[in-house]
Give the backbone structure.
Amino acid sequence: MAADIETVEQVQSVGADYKYGFVTDIEVELAPKGLNEDIIRFISAKKSEPEWLLAWRLKAFRHWLTMEEPNWAKVGYPPIDYQDAYYYAAPKTTDGPKSLDEVDPKLLETYEKLGIPLREQEFLAGVAVDAVFDSVSVATTYKAKLEEQGIIFCPISEAVANYPELVKKYLGSIVPYSDNFFATLNSAVFTDGSFVYIPKGVRCPMELSTYFRINQANTGQFERTLIVADEGAYVSYLEGCTAPMRDENQLHAAVVELIAHDDAEIKYSTVQNWYPGDEEGRGGIYNFVTKRGACRGRNSKIAWTQVETGSAITWKYPSCILQGDNSVGEFYSVAITNNRQQADTGTKMIHIGKNTTSRIVSKGIAAGRSDSTYRGLVRMQAGATNARNHTQCDSLLIGDQSGAHTVPYIESTNPSARVEHEATTSRISDDQLFYCRARGLTSEEAVSLIVNGFCREVLQTLPMEFAVEAQKLVGISLEGSVG
Amino acid sequence: MPVSLKSRPEPPDRPMLENAMPPPLLSDRHAATAARLPGSGLAWLGDLRGQALASYRAEGLPTRKLEAWRKTPLDHLAGLDLAPAELTAPPAVDTLPPWQRELVQGPSIVFVNGHHHPGLSRLSGLPDGVLIDSLAHLLEHRPALIEAHIGRLATPKGHALAALNAAFMGDGLVVRLPAGIRLDQPLHLINIAAPGAGAIAIQPRHLVILEAGAAMTLVESHTGLGDTAYFANAVTEISLAPKARLRHIKAQLETPAATHLASVTVSLGEDALYDAFTLNSGALLARQETYVDITGRQGEARVNGVYLAAAGQQQDNVTRIVHDTTDSLSRQNFRGVIDAGGKGVFQGKILVKRHAQRTDGHQLNRVLLLAPGARIDAKPELEIYADDVKCSHGATAGELDEDALFYLCARGIPPAAARRMLTEAFAGEAVNEIADQTLRQSFMALVRSWLDTRFGAPA
């Protein structure tokens, strides 16, 4: 298996350390530390936002003040001081870049280190990338080609300026400003993210991609992504994330909203590789993310695929609201935790329309002293006649100091709806390891091979560009967990 | 008295403000009962009850703010003026309901409104050394024995209903089998609620202690008389020494005015077996909580059940199997049949502790929704900290398999009869977990009589 040889090479080349842990030293404009209405006005003013958006942010902020941080997830962390962080950090430039030539060369270098050379991608890879660096979108590649087909792919702040009606119509329509503690915080202070609109009947000719990076110390990142697929449209969207190594924890509270109209399809893939903290659990990103898609139209489809290998703590439940008749929701997840990482992740499938179907495949791998939890909800509402769900949750434990947990909620009020849930927990057996070792693989290679096989069902759903990276990540993330 | 469970809408995700009302069952007449309960002269028991009362006073009845009670409203209890049954003289019940009389052949002990009823009990011919008696009687005559066991497994901390029970417990069944003794016939624990004109609260406390190698079958049956509301809050503590084997089979057919809450806490020694089956088909709201702590190597827990909910009823099952040692095994097999307007809740958990290597745990909850308006909320849960384990769970919800129905209809069986047949077979798969053939047949007959009310008697 080629990927495994590469994995080993990669592990050697990075010395088993977090590959993306460098800091880019560029001039940054920061808003004062802390969170209050002035900061929100500052962010809004920085982005030259219209009045309605500022009002929406303030409404969210005032509501947030009345909310309590949720504590039901199976994760533990010291209290977060929301006043001890910067809510706005932007590379210092005068105006938004007109083209890549105007982008700070140091930034471009950073992205090259990350393995997403924007230029190269623009000319060769054919993947349109919107790169978000701390709080602002740096560049969106391939924009012109997309515009020919009427596809809008731009930073959300730009969309607010250029397509206010579209943004106003859809922003907060899936994740309302009052949704939950972290989403509400995001609504108040979100700084950037991507906006995608695919017009009627258009099949987006390339994968769209966003790369998020937290660079600045003491910052939170609060991006907001909004993707609308109009009737009969199709789009595949990729999201990747990294952050430098730091001893303190950093907060990432993003919101993603997807809307699929009649016959539309959105495929959303994430490879999340935020800095997970060191072996003793120092530092790392708190990844508290709200992702939700609505299959508004008939025959629409939303598929989430996620490979979660990073972050000190993951709190994330990409969900589908299956409103339109015959709509389809899918959730494929690999969550790998090592050392002291904690992941509480899963999905919600809310079946409202007739003949709606959902499929959940979740693979959790816990190594070191980490905890991995699948938490999910499948709800069949009274109108979900002939709806179907199948859920498969498998957990793999590596070493006897880790924990794997499964907490599914199943609610059905429609007899013709069928819900099936299966879950298993096991470990890599000595037999499997012995078999691989006997054929000359090291134990590291053997584990990587077995785990990649365990996750194959999910990894196969990733677009090519990510599948290779994800396979490598699986190997790297488990480095040091055996032998 | 018409009582409805829908006294409050579903709670929002965020917690609501604290209810300023004092918890139910703490009126003056309840407070005054403490001094008159059996064993009230015993200092240790006074302490136990006092602490439990304080704990219940602080927590109140569980609300839907608590994760374990999210789907189970108890608001209707606050609206009932519940008199403590512990202190009222039991009403004259001189015959047993026929189904209870016929359920089991063997010795029986009868409790009416939670009070031991010696006149109806049949406890002759037991082997030497076997102790089967009422808690009230033993508190008077052998308090040391009770002190050694009561409240050891069902602790009131964080469990408001166990606290409430501990505050008012006065009677119940006590069984102790000496080492190596096996009871050939099942012991039948018969519970009858006869509330008369006013609503009552019954708080039985049962203790079952099996010493090393002892074995028995305990059959529990529950029913009520009349249509007055009553609240039964039973707590059972079961201690199984190494190689002890207890089969615990329960039929709950309370009246539609009843709220039946029961918790069973089991401690399982090395190589011991706890094999439980519960049929819940009665009551307005019934909740069976089974907590098994496997502390002995190669301990084995089997917790199975069938729950049948007709219109207006809610049937809850809560299990928590804790694997606290190596090489232990657990199996759970639950089947729910929910009719229009009925509701089922299943919360099952397998917890495998860090050192519990080579655990083998499996759990299955399957639910049949018979008609629109039926509802199931299931939460099968695995919490696993040991790596060398085989653990799995499965859960399904839906209607009867159309292919199977078609198959039967194609062979000339009328659709209604085919549905009944398949529903019976569906529930039967869990009833089959009952090891004893006679009991299996008796319980299958109870399931059939429920099906008669739903589908009509078979032609």
